[in-house]
Amino acid sequence: MNRNLWLLTACQGLFLTNNVAFIAINGLVGLALAPHGWMATLPVMGYVVGGALATPLVARTQRRFGRRRSFQIGLAVALGSALLCAQAALWQNFWLLCLATVVAGYYNANASLYRFAAAELAAPDWREKAVSLVMAGGLIGAVAGPNLASLTRNWFAVPFAGAYLALAAVALVAMAMMRFIDFPPPPVRSEAQGGRPLAEIVRQPVFIVAAVAGALGFGVMNLLMAATPIAMQICSLPFEDIAFVLEWHVIGMFAPGFFTGHLIRRFGALPVMGVGLALNAGCIAVALSGVDLHRFLVALFLLGVGWNFLFTGSTTLSLQAYAPEEKDRAQGALNFCVFATLAVTSLASGVLVTTQGWQLLNLGSLVPVALTAAALLWLLRRRRRSSEAVR
Length: 391
Hints:
By secondary structure, the chain is mostly helical. It has helices spanning 3-33, 42-91, 94-111, 114-120, 127-135, 138-152, 161-178, 198-202, 205-234, 239-254, 257-267, 269-288, 293-318, 327-355, 358-364, 366-390.
């Protein structure tokens, strides 16, 4: 870990502070302001829809301005959108809140590239560990996000307006840190060395499985996490308990980052991703067993660890699918798959938890878990057949 990686780890932590706080409060603010209960998670959905829509623009700014300037543009958007969210809360305007979260999606799409930038700041033999350790920076967000939301939610007469203002301050701190990170220059491109077309890159089995596992693994996590604050409120649990559960969920998401890279180097990405799927299944089993605080806590912690194994594994796996000169288009396509899935699950979580209940929501999440397992087995069998053919 060098200075640049430590600073990027801190920026990742501040990014997750924003994300976790958004998850903790957007659904609740949406539930209070929405014309209909099933619309409660539309502000959560807006955040990821904005990310999906911004993905092509983010890829272009990364190519044109490089990593540092592009990341700073994203942080400027984070600052402006947080202020707009605060205004929406003060005005009690649901649709302005949805618009503000769509704008914030640009920051979401931009900062989601921190994990890829981490691989560029490390020697080739350390890429897996660099990705894993920078993702471990999310531990900052695990502690800061829920506690920041809890401490600032009553700063004004309108609940959570102060929390949005606090997130604007978080963006300013991240902008200051980003100035001191030295990213390597982008690879020189020429017409003769522009890399393969995107259509050729995405047809590779390794890319397909990385995209499916990353998108569906994130989708399951988002489906259950976005619904948890609403489900706990419906069960008459106080906001302090909601913040506590989300804190341990995000600890589960990022604490394994200190050793996930070592596991991937030793056992390979696919076995680690398989363990992540098993943990997701364990989460669903616990969630189906009851709705008291401790079951919410254990289920969400298992969900977080499972996400870490799946997402770190899929990110590492995707590095095999493209050359350096192809990174912008390949990473943009991967992020688009993630954000498109998150958009669907963000809306589905609010609709299902308010109309069908927590139990049916968890049963439905078994479908993407099974599809991800099928994708991993398909790639594993292809590799075994290729290995046997070489022999």
